[in-house]
């Protein structure tokens, strides 16, 4: 088991070098295409934040405004999964504890529980739904059981200052609601996922639980669209590749953070974009840019 390390100490391992002229690290040659694609998006008015680090050395492979706090939509659900996993490992509750859904939890969009007849599910199954399908209803039920304040405290204990889950999932956000479900910086998110991969988030057993849930993720539509993996089944190595990731999607928001391992190397990466989602071509341009980063990541690990 890997002993836990204080968040500030762990983040210092990945402290960045001087920033380049694009307010980020100049990329290694193998990342120049993705760097250029994100630059083109920025010139077209898209707000971009990105970072990739070598999983073993912590070396920064490229970054673009990685300190900027961006809306990250469902990526904040990872913090909820971490808090739940920590409680399960501490035996504060059982993974088989049943939780009922209520009318106040109801929400549309992502997830499948809203389409199922079963009114109650075990905590571990709710976490699997969040990991696999970013299930909004399961998220709200877990938040009611765990508490948003507990998720906030856990994030602070991990040393996260610019990454947070701000609210439950809502169909509509009013003036009195948090403007985003979650926010985060690419720098902190790459640290968090690299720490999960090393078994250093809370402890090795907690990290392993979270990695297991995230490895179920079906959304490979952004950066991970370049990896050629089966969206519905990629928990084991496929052509030497192994992925865990979490995506966030909202109007004008596309964000992804993950860890990709390959025969030659491993990387932790985060790419977040905020844009005017007024026409399909704008959205497709953002996804093309994210895929370009994915192709560079694939080349680096393979």
Automatic annotation (TrEMBL):
Residues in Beta-lactamase class A catalytic domain copies: 52-272
UniProt keyword terms in alphabetical order: Hydrolase
Region feature (Disordered): 1-29
Alphabetical list of Pfam families matching this protein: Beta-lactamase2
Gene Ontology biological process terms, A to Z: beta-lactam antibiotic catabolic process; response to antibiotic
Gene3D superfamilies tied to this protein: DD-peptidase/beta-lactamase superfamily
Listed Basic residues bias regions: 11-24
Keyword Transport: no
Molecular-function GO terms, alphabetical: beta-lactamase activity
Alphabetized SUPFAM superfamilies for the sequence: beta-lactamase/transpeptidase-like
Zinc keyword on record: no
InterPro entries associated with the record: Beta-lactam/transpept-like (IPR012338), Beta-lactam_cat (IPR045155), Beta-lactam_class-A (IPR000871)
Listed name of the protein: Serine hydrolase
Organism this protein belongs to: Humibacter ginsenosidimutans
């Amino acid at each position: 088991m890997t002993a836990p390390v204080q968040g500030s100490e762990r983040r210092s391992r990945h402290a960045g070098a001087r920033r380049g002229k694009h307010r980020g690290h100049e990329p290694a040659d193998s990342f120049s295409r993705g760097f250029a694609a994100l630059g083109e998006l920025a010139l077209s008015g898209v707000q971009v934040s990105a970072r990739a680090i070598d999983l073993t050395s912590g070396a920064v492979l490229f970054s673009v405004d990685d300190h900027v706090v961006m809306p990250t939509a469902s990526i904040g659900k990872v913090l909820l999964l971490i808090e739940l996993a920590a409680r399960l490992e501490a035996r504060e509750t059982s993974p088989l504890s049943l939780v009922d859904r209520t009318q106040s939890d109801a929400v549309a969009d992502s997830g499948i529980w809203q389409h199922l007849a079963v009114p109650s599910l075990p905590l571990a199954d709710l976490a699997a739904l969040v990991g696999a399908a970013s299930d909004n209803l399961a998220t709200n039920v877990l938040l009611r059981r765990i508490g948003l304040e507990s998720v906030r405290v856990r994030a602070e204990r991990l040393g996260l200052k610019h990454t947070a889950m701000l609210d439950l999932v809502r169909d509509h956000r009013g003036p009195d609601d948090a403007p985003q479900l979650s926010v985060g910086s690419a720098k902190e998110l790459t640290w968090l996922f690299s720490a999960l991969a090393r078994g250093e988030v809370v402890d090795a057993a907690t990290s392993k639980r979270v990695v297991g849930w995230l490895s179920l993720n079906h959304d490979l539509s952004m950066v991970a669209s370049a990896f050629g993996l089966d969206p519905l089944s990629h928990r084991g190595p496929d052509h030497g590749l192994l992925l865990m990731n979490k995506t966030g999607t909202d109007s004008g928001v596309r964000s992804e953070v993950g860890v990709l391992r390959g025969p030659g190397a491993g990387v932790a990466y985060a790419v977040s974009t905020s844009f005017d989602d007024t026409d399909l071509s704008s959205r497709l341009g953002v996804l093309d840019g994210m895929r370009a980063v994915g192709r560079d990541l694939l080349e680096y690990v393979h």
